[in-house]
Design goal:
The protein is mainly α. The chain has one domain. 70% of the residues lie in helices and 0% in strands. The chain contains nine helices and no strands. Helix 2 crosses helix 6 and helix 7 packs antiparallel against helix 8. The two termini are 32 Å apart.
Length: 211
Amino acid sequence: MGLLSLLFQDPISFAILAGVLVASLTIHEFAHAWAADKLGDPTPRHQGRLTLNPLAHLDPLGSVALLVIGFGWGKPVQFDPYNLKEPVRDAAMIGLAGPAVNLISALLLALALPFIPAFASVISLSIFYNVMLAIFNLVPVAPLDGSKILLALLPKDVAYEYDSFMARYGTLVLVGLLMPWGGQSPISMLIRPIINTILGGLLGLSGLIGA
């Protein structure tokens, strides 16, 4: 479920959740820009993406999706593969950077949770949304990060066909996966068990530390 229903029911909770989401999206997209810059492509720096300013990273459609259905994305970080030494491999590393930073953030927050009980609810939400953004973006459908990672793992001929298909139909496929069928979207059914498993492990670790 998205956050839009909270806007009129509980504006304070809505503001907290929105802030958590914006922060999680911002570090995700910043990580992509940082990785591209370190791998030799200055494009994100020139486009003003090498910043932690949320306004540089929010995508209108992705933000609406987060509010309405609970899954979404930031503005994709553009990079020039001709500036990369190993374009396919480095593109996969750039794609992996965002989800990796979200998962690392979730782990650090879980470790900190027992020591900051006054902010337990906000930290718990931050853990959830960081894990959600990481796993959602690893789905191998363009423009999500998982498509770049899968492209690097496929044989060259298959990768070419996959890339061509995603360039033409990726957004349509993603919209179809996000649409609720029978009350739940296909993408939610796919990634919810993975998210819940990771959350269970992180919160279990947090509980062990706090015991």
